[in-house]
């Protein structure tokens, strides 16, 4: 699980920037780096971290994923809609995702990443640009309710069921779980393996939940509470999530390598 958020144009309190969004991204990015550091210690160095392999670790992971994806959909609406700019952003994110797949395939095949979170963000942005004329026609309250319901309903499709977190409502037919296209949708073939897998289903609905939440709040006084500067260093981190994401894992590995050589691990 390697969540990252697109650097959407959130606004500065003097120029309209929503600095609290940068702050939330910065806090969540630090949480993600800590989670990945813990992952490396547990699975690569055999360190026993109580709770990490159980429910507390899972909830930590999911909180990072959910917040990043929701915020990314929320930020998609910020600023004037520029389809070309967003397409370029989507292609950049997709390219970074493909690069990570290639690197893990060559360097760490046991930790192979196929359709990781960056690939998802790229697809989500491109799909949202394509469907934007339709998405914006749907009333925000209706869109938000439908997307939340669909997210919960499709949460476990990769496991063969409609349902949420083990609450199995309806089994899905096996013929759906064939081929690369269906894997991208959320129906991986038997034996599929990826240490970071974010298909369109269910995550696109969480992305669009953020989209409709912004549209629901747009023009409301509540948005002014997102503008104040609260912590400049965290806001800076939140504005540079993509480059930090791309270098954080090699940096962690270098730190742990040096710690091991020094006899600390």
UniProtKB/TrEMBL annotation:
Record carries keyword Flavoprotein: no
Keywords: Membrane, Transmembrane, Transmembrane helix
Transmembrane spans: 20-38, 58-78, 90-107, 113-135, 142-163, 175-193, 200-222, 242-259
Pfam (any one): HGSNAT_cat
Heparan-alpha-glucosaminide N-acetyltransferase catalytic domain segment(s): 17-250
InterPro entries to which the protein is assigned, alphabetical: HGSNAT_cat
Keyword Transmembrane helix: yes
Protein name: DUF1624 domain-containing protein
Species the sequence originates in: Candidatus Eisenbergiella merdipullorum
